Amino acid sequence: MPYIPKKQIRRLAGPTVYARGLDYYERGYIKGIQQQQNGTISKIKASVQGEEMYKVELFFLESGEWEDGSCTCPAHSDGMHVCKHMAAVMIELASLQKPEVSSFFSEPVQKKQVSEKEATSSLRHFFMDHFSGRLTTVESIGEPMRAEFVLQFFSDYSFVQEKYFTVQLRIGVDKLYVVKNMEDLFASIRQRSLLPITKNFTFDPTYHYFKEEDLQALKMLEYIVRNQKWQKDGRTASFGYSETSARAIQVPPVAAEQMLERLTPCRQVFVQSATRNQLVPFMVKEEFPGTFDMQQADEDYLISYSAVSYPPKRISLTSYYIWNDRLYKIDPEADRDIVLLFHMLMDTPQGRLPLSSEEVGQVYKQIVAPLEQNEKLEMTESIRSSIEEQPLQAKIYLDKKENGLTADPLFSYGPYSIHAVTEQQTPEDKAILVRDTKQEKDILQFIEEAGFHWNGERLILSQEEDIALFFLDILPELKKQADVFMSRAAESTFIPPETLQVEAALDPSMGWLDISFETSDLNEEDVFHLMKALKEKKRYYKTIEGGYVSLTSSWMKNLQDLLQDTPVTEENTENKKMRMPSYKTLLLDDKTRESAGWNASATMEDLIRHIRDPQTFEVELPERLNADLRDYQKLGFQWMKALTAYGFGGILADDMGLGKTLQTLTYILSERQKNPEAPPFLIVAPSSLIYNWEKEAQRFTPDLKIAVIHGTKPQRKKQWSTYEEADVWITSYPLLRRDEELYRGRVFYGLILDEAQNIKNHLSKSFRAVRRMDAGRIFALSGTPIENKLEELWSMFAVIMPGLFPDVSKFKQLSPDQIKQRIAPFIMRRTKKEVLKELPDKIESSLYCELNKQQRETYMAYLERIKAETSQQLKEGLSSNRMNILANLTRLRQLCCHPGMFLENYTGSSGKLDELMAFMKDSKENGRRVLVFSQFTSMLSIISKAFDEAGLSYFYLDGKTPSDQRMALTEQFNEGSADSFLISLKAGGTGLNLTGADTVVLFDLWWNPAVESQAADRAHRIGQKRVVQVVKLISQGTIEEKILSLQDKKKALFDQVIQTGESSLSSLSEDDIRELLDL
């Protein structure tokens, strides 16, 4: 393997670089040395670890002499010097030449051993260089070299108008000497070896140094030489090969631009004159050489170049030209047209280009004016005086013929007009008319894009769709650049939307909105077809008379949105009217109603104002209302009355505890006083709340006659016959389902659906039973109109306002924003934070509980088994195993509460129960009254036993508690009986008013945080005088922490559609399950 003696390495690299290379060698940073043979050249490849892994290549001649090398590190980017990585590989090669014992049984020879003196000396240099900040350089101790570059330019016989050049070099200190072989000079610099230039001068690279600007030019020349040499040897090169003598380096065209840029800052650069035997100083002017001339010859104008006999020549593949031994650098972008003109003139036989006055006018702005501005054009005063420069005024004349739409484009400049196609000018004149060819081209491009074609006489557009799109898309843009004149026939072809007179009228009694087109441009059949075109989202409609109506305006698009769920038939477009449900009025945006040609009836404007701002709907509170309504409750009452006045229903979605029941009873009383002979209202509520409604009605609206339908079926039948005089019927969802036949044929004035989430499933029996009720006005009450998914809203509005949404499959395609836009007028939502500034704070916190030892062992055993089962079940498919998976998740949640809930032989306690008992003891001592919620009645049973043993007084309520007892227990608790109330989350989470409590404990987490919020609001509601503390008990390190995290991630759906600040939890997905169990 070839190598370099260490003495030579030290000389090549210098002491500092050598010391660093030695350090790398001793640390073992060199990896994977390989040798490759390529003809007479031997290549050594290696990798060296530095700040990153660098690739080193060393080249040796057949004689073993080192020729060249390279490294991918930044320090070797100049390609001129040996870097520390190259030095390290050279030292490694040198060390490999030491005799080694090759016997299999011999002791291994230690590699990389150097003398202590050598290593110490090298490292000493490295230490001082690195830490002292005083690197010894040639510049500080040596002598500067002068460098003189001489360029000689030659004609390229392949391209007679182009040149290439060579570079020769003279160097010296006081006197300059010709470098006879530049390759030797570069080798001397790389290898740090002496190079005799003459008998009197020897170049010493360790002593002599070049100025930075000269060094950069030399590096470029060295690159060129190396590339040419490598290409000869068959290796990769950056530049194309060109023949070079030892003394004069021929610069290849691809490197010429960079070479000239490197030479520009050098102080001594000369050009060998092409006409004189002398050197001319190298100068670069940034302009195009020479001048142009324009003369008149008869009716034409001749443009020529001033130095046609000896024109400038371009230096191949560069932006440089040489002329009269000087270099000129052009701007390829700014001077592009001038350069093109020059080359065109050089290609003509006499170096002249004849142009007519019209042609000069057309190229004036591009060529003539820039040449004049740069003082590059000579012309006579008579030519200059004949130039007419006026602004362009484009005119387009449109007409309608039997075979299509015609266009006549004219370009006017002052008194002159030119036809855009025929170029005919009037008046005819020999003046040079300066034309704005760019703008002319842009205008003609619009016309061409429209599809106009020249039929020999005029431009014509024949296809129906092309004519429509011209008026829709191109004409508005064309009008920005030209004056457009239309004949009456052409004007009648296009009917702008703003010229259509539209009447929008409302008939609340019939529930219809009529959109009428009061215009002679459309007949009754047109209205039908125009509406169909809108519904099909077409961009234009062609009338029966042949006119085109744009369907792309903003109000047309708004009307298009209204039509999506409305069938377009000949029946609902009679008398030039489009009839649609009146609620569509609220989907008309302000921009549409303010559009030109739109006229909205007073009734329609009243509807929009009253629904958007119910305060503007003037209505008195009913007489003998036994309550003082707060302002927001009056607003809710006005909103319900306004919706009723216009035949709508809605959802009162106020926060729990804000008095939805009171607002609704006020509304019912008002309607009964207004229409005492009308059929009764029907209130449908959960079984647990029917008596709450009765009590509240007796309290606030004692004039209302209330009939509660309950008991056995015979009892209910009897109640039916005796309740004919009632103002309000109250029943439950389960009884409504059972009594569906009894309700058939019965008409109610209004229907109130309390806790309307009971009909959220459109496939349920409750939904079907409620939807069959015949009632003129329907309102839903729900603090959580969305509990899990958006389809729940569809179910509610399918009952309240049938037709507001399309069928379920199309509803799912609507975005949350589209849904929100439709429901916004029909949902009123206020939170406690917004309207009850005087309501005491609700302080929410989480109390983390440790599982005790026995409980944790049990939990972990079940967790591992359930994780394995669930992983397998998910592979088989979530849909087929959902019930099993959810049952297993419930088991884990029960273990967090108390293993004894389902393990009969469990004798231990529960960390969470122990924490609850300590909390209850502290609460009793501090006089706090507590509601304890759990979704598991078996857990409530365990808690009740613990309370009994501790002597804590409490009430108990679950789904088995009769409705009448619920009211009695609530009243007793609020009056001060018992310290606490144990409540099933499902049975007592809604409808109870328990303001006697000031503390709420959520013993276990529920998937839906809205249900937990409802439970907390049993205490935090109107009438509460104290701060309410809500505490969630969470078993640390268990699935309950995962549920809490999942709740936080699932709060976007309600926010998007109803109102910011609430939350909802979608059904558990596979990803949710994997997250809960860390699968």
Automatic annotation (TrEMBL):
Residues in SWIM-type domain copies: 54-94
Domain Helicase C-terminal, residue spans: 912-1077
Pfam families associated with the record: Helicase_C, SNF2-rel_dom, SNF2_assoc
Keyword Nucleotide-binding: yes
Keyword vocabulary terms for this entry: ATP-binding, Helicase, Hydrolase, Metal-binding, Nucleotide-binding, Zinc, Zinc-finger
Annotated GO MF terms: ATP binding; helicase activity; hydrolase activity; zinc ion binding
InterPro entries in alphabetical order: Helicase_ATP-bd, Helicase_C-like, Helicase_SWF/SNF/SWI_bac, P-loop_NTPase, SNF2-like_sf, SNF2/RAD54-like_C, SNF2_N, Znf_SWIM
Coiled-coil ranges per UniProt: none
Every Helicase ATP-binding domain range: 641-803
Domain of life: Bacteria
Protein name, UniProt field: SNF2 family DNA or RNA helicase
